[in-house]
Design goal:
Chain lengths: 797, 180
């Protein structure tokens, strides 16, 4: 009886509220008397601050506070390094307000609080900063070259880290290899850009001592614990709420953004609630960004195209700071091998500082880069050996009987990069078949005779998902029969109010619409990490499952006592506990919850009757030793290691050689994320990911000029795809449950975005093969495609 | 800096009359959100690209981040809070979004719903191409648009049922009245 539980395509519990405009996003929170803040940001990518004069700003009527670095005292310490690593030898994190030097255009320099945002912006316009502009470090390879200026004066070579990793003995293989190919590959900067930017509201209740902070974050519990430390408050006096979060995509996992410290600081200092809401220009200049790597890859193959060894050296642009350590390039290095048998692999990356916004994970988190490199290598092998790229893939795939497959590298979470389950050959064939791969070649030949440039591309990937440390959940059945599920992580569109409800409902035998899920509120659940790294379903989902099982056990025990049956004979169906094979012997979950709380007071008719009918005369305490009141439980899930999802995308394109425009004719996704809890939600995640993958391949590129000035500071310049650019996406599933967790689930949040650049590179290269174009960079805008055509053909026509 | 003199505005929002003194530089989006507390209208870019702040001004979808509150003086506005016919029933466009999983985080959704409601009023049976062209004035970062396109198609069908039901209801009422 699980038709509406796990596996069901049910509409989402959260939707009616959001559809009516009754969502509660951070900027919708307006405590009485709230003041509004604005930030003064550096106009230079690199400059010395000679002096700041804020006196005129402070005199603007309606201004309550103007802060420069010296006003902050100890609050202005550099933010904590979230994820240290022994090879991150020169980590640097940002201060709330810049001291002495600014390191990217957009860095916070001063902060004003006023009656409204308009006045706060008037105030920051009145702050006079005397800057001495300095040459900026913009290009990531130049950053590591001789003579580059230092982004941090005490890191003279701009090198934050150098990390070599080794599997097998690739050097020996390269010495004897039949064929060796090399390539230089570039993937440029982009960013998450959720439609809701960041935002923070803080109020300090002087009566209770509670500092309450609403922030558009993916990790409210770490923010809470961090703020408690920064402000010297007990953790139980800090409450952090991420109400509805309007998209995150990794951008909002970062902590602490300067404003997350400045706003509570101002609220504490002024004794008034304070709000700051990021505008789009601030998002595109001051929020964290990602992508941005240059790879030099070499591959050794045998005559049949089987990969014998691979060596990759790459430079990773971390921007001005390393708040999130070196997680992104570690993921690139670990996930680059993807679905392929790679027994000899050397990868070494260097992390370079540049005068650009800091880098932290953005949907895909290093994987699109690695997959782009690996799949370009597959394409290179195919071209050089005269093979079809799909055939090269077939010859190199890890086989179903080779799981668990250990890549041999230490993953981002410190655990092994060990694939738990999958069936890659089946996935590839399913994607090829669905996309009509074989038939396409015939159509392509015909199109080429008509001088039309159509092409097909394939890309496979593996995604480590569901990383630890752990998440927890609280499940409680109320006397009304409604079920509350609370977990510590957030939801920013993934449908957790529905999928977690499905998991609880499946165990408790009720309808998912009877389950209310609470996320992102430290007042409701105090343990856990956050929603990132495609981990929510794996970690919180299994925690909800664990807690619900405990509740089910208790419900059976209590019902067994009341119905005079063995708990093993009690089944939970349709919101009721009933004795198997004894029609009529049953109780509602709500009645059991009422009885499980023996406080003599019963609210409502049904509860009253249940209490009267069921509670018998007793001797001794109402709760036996060790027994707890209520029908509730807390459960946790800590994964032993990451679980590895996988997929294969196939895209057909037509390139217009005159305009350089790329039209997507067909986009097929094969995907395997283990057990599907709600296939509709899973497909939605994939659709959105694919759109970001296409954006990252064809449109989205954060351009900086030679002075480090960001040139994409509006949605007119940073081109996110619209409904006109994103085609119909066909999704087919394979379902290989993970053996690592009770639900058999794997993460899906980032999947769709990962192979976008790789698959479009292959398709565009295939389309333009008659012109001999090689794709070595992403993204590719029409102008660049025109340039490549001109370079290859020596003509402009 | 000289003080900015407030200006009186009178607007009808979701059928309710409001008068207020506002700064002439106050954006219509901020007026709706902060002065009237109608926080369902969202602001995603403040430069007229993302479409999240779309409301109806005298029946026409407009970007409330590109208008000043004073420009709306004398106008009738509808925001997302005024789209559903009642607190029990969703508007067919809202219902279609729910059925087709046309929203994820829900931030861009109110603006899309306002645009689509007006679009389907003027173009009840749109082609896929017309739908995508209409949606291209909005940015959604979550859905990849596919289920939004499906939702518009579904909404078109639901609206046809809706107006048929309403017409039938009106005819029945007329027949009832006409009875001696």
């Amino acid at each position: 009886m699980t038709t509406r539980g796990i596996g069901a395509r049910i509409p989402r519990n959260e939707d009616p509220r959001l559809l009516r405009g009754l969502g509660c996003f951070v900027d919708d929170v307006n405590p009485a008397g709230v003041l509004h803040a604005a930030c003064l940001r550096s106009p230079h990518a690199r400059a010395r601050i000679r002096s700041i004069d804020a006196s005129r700003a402070r005199a603007v009527p309606g201004v309550h506070l103007v802060a420069v670095a010296s006003d902050l005292g100890e609050m202005n310490e550099p933010s904590p390094l979230l994820i240290p690593h022994p090879l991150l030898t020169a980590p640097r994190t940002q201060r709330p307000l810049a001291v002495g030097e600014v390191r990217f255009a957009g860095e916070t320099v001063a902060f004003a609080v006023a009656d409204d945002r308009y006045i706060a912006e008037d105030a920051i316009a009145q702050i006079e900063v005397d800057y001495e502009a300095l040459p900026a470090v913009v290009d990531v390879e130049a950053a590591l070259g001789a003579g580059a200026p230092a982004v941090h004066t005490d890191v003279s070579d701009n090198r934050a880290a150098r990390v070599p990793q080794l599997v097998g003995d690739p050097d020996a293989v390269f010495r004897d290899a039949a064929r060796v190919f090399t390539e230089r590959l570039v993937i440029e900067r982009s960013c998450g850009s959720p439609i809701e930017g960041r935002g923070v509201v803080a109020e300090h209740d002087q009566r209770t001592g509670v500092l309450r902070v609403w922030t558009s974050t993916q990790a409210p519990l770490p923010v809470k614990n961090g703020l408690a430390r920064i402000f010297g408050l007990p953790e139980f006096h800090v409450e952090v709420i991420a109400p509805d979060v309007g998209g995150g995509f990794g951008t909002k996992i970062m902590m602490f953004y300067p404003e997350e410290i400045l706003v509570p600081w101002a609220a504490l200092r002024l004794g008034r609630p304070v709000k700051w809401t990021e505008d789009r220009r601030e998002h595109l200049t001051a929020a964290n960004q990602e992508r941005g790597q240059v790879h030099h890859v070499e591959v050794a193959v045998d005559a049949g195209g089987r990969i014998l060894a691979l060596r990759d050296r790459f430079v990773h642009d971390t921007g001005a700071y390393t708040p999130y350590g070196i997680v992104v390039p570690i993921i690139t290095a670990c996930q680059l091998p993807g679905q392929y048998r790679l027994r000899n692999y050397a990868v070494e990356f260097e992390v370079a500082y540049t005068n650009k916004p800091a880098v932290s994970p953005y949907r895909g988190a290093g994987r699109p880069h690695g997959v782009f490199v690996m799949e370009r290598v597959i394409g290179l092998i195919a071209r050089e050996l005269g093979l079809d790229s799909a055939e090269v893939r077939r010859r190199n795939l890890i086989q179903p009987d080779e799981f668990p497959w250990d890549v041999g590298l230490v993953f981002q979470d410190g655990g092994p990069t060990r694939y738990d389950s999958g069936n890659y050959p089946a996935g590839l064939e399913m994607a090829l078949e669905r996309s009509g791969y074989a038939a396409f070649r015939a159509r392509q030949a015909e199109a080429r005779r008509e001088r039309r440039y159509v092409g097909i591309g394939v890309a496979c990937y593996v995604e480590g998902t569901g990383i630890g440390p752990y998440e927890g959940a609280h499940v409680r059945v109320e006397p009304s029969g409604r079920v509350l599920v609370a977990t510590g992580l957030t939801t920013q569109g993934q449908g957790h109010y529905t999928t977690f409800a499905q998991i609880a409902a499946d165990v408790l035998g009720c309808d998912p619409s009877d389950v209310s899920v609470v996320t992102g509120d430290t007042r409701k659940f105090n343990w856990g990490a956050g929603t990132y790294a495609s981990r929510a379903l794996v970690t919180s989902g299994n925690a909800v499952h664990a807690a619900a099982l405990k509740v089910r056990d208790k419900a059976r025990r209590v019902a067994g006592q009341l119905l005079e049956a063995s708990p093993g004979d009690i089944e939970l169906v349709g919101g009721r506990a009933r004795v198997r094979g004894a029609p009529g012997k049953e109780l509602s979950l709500g009645a059991i919850a009422t009885v499980a709380n023996p406080i003599r007071y019963a609210y409502g008719k049904e509860a009253s009757e249940a209490a009267l009918r069921l509670v018998k005369a007793r001797a001794g305490a109402v709760l036996a030793p060790g027994e707890e009141p209520g029908l509730e439980a807390v459960g946790y899930y800590a994964p032993p290691q990451s679980t590895f999802a996988s997929g294969c995308h196939v895209v057909q394109v037509e390139v217009d050689p005159v305009t350089g425009d790329v039209a997507i004719l067909r986009y097929v996704v094969q995907h395997d994320c283990g057990t599907l809890v709600n296939p509709t939600v899973v497909e939605g995640q994939i659709h959105g990911g694919v759109a970001q993958g296409i954006g990252g391949a064809l449109y989205e590129r954060l351009v900086f000029d030679e002075f480090g000035q960001p040139l994409c500071t509006t949605y007119v310049d940073f081109l996110m795809p619209t409904a006109m650019e994103i085609p119909e996406i066909e999704v087919v599933h394979t379902e290989t449950p993970s053996p690592l967790n009770p639900l058999g689930v794997k993460g899906v949040g980032e999947a769709g975005a990962i192979p976008g650049p790789a698959v479009l590179a292959e398709a565009i290269e295939d389309a333009l093969a008659p012109l001999g174009i090689r794709i070595r960079e992403m993204p590719l805008h029409p102008g660049r495609i025109r340039e490549l055509i001109e370079l290859a053909t020596g003509s402009v026509g | 800096m000289s003080a900015i003199r407030p200006v009186a505005v009178r607007v009808r929002v979701n059928g309710r009359e409001h008068t207020a003194e506002v700064s002439p530089r106050l954006l219509l989006s901020d007026f709706l959100r902060y002065r009237l507390g109608l926080t369902g209208t969202h602001v995603g870019c403040e430069h007229g690209v993302c479409g999240a702040c779309t409301v109806h001004l005298d029946g026409v979808p407009v970007r409330s981040c590109l208008l000043l509150a004073v420009q709306a003086d004398g106008a009738a506005l509808t925001t997302i809070e005024g789209l559903a016919p009642s607190s029990e029933r969703l508007h067919p466009v809202q219902e279609a979004f729910r059925l087709e999983h046309g929203l994820q985080c829900g931030f861009c959704t109110p603006g899309l719903l306002m645009t689509i409601a007006a679009f389907l009023r003027d173009c009840p049976r749109p082609s896929d191409e017309q739908i995508r062209r209409e949606l291209s004035g909005h940015l959604c970062r979550c859905t990849g648009y596919q289920n939004i396109v499906r939702a518009v198609i579904r909404a078109s069908a639901l609206l046809a049922e809706w107006s048929a039901a309403r017409a039938a209801g009106a005819a029945a009422a007329r027949a009832e009245e006409a009875r001696p």
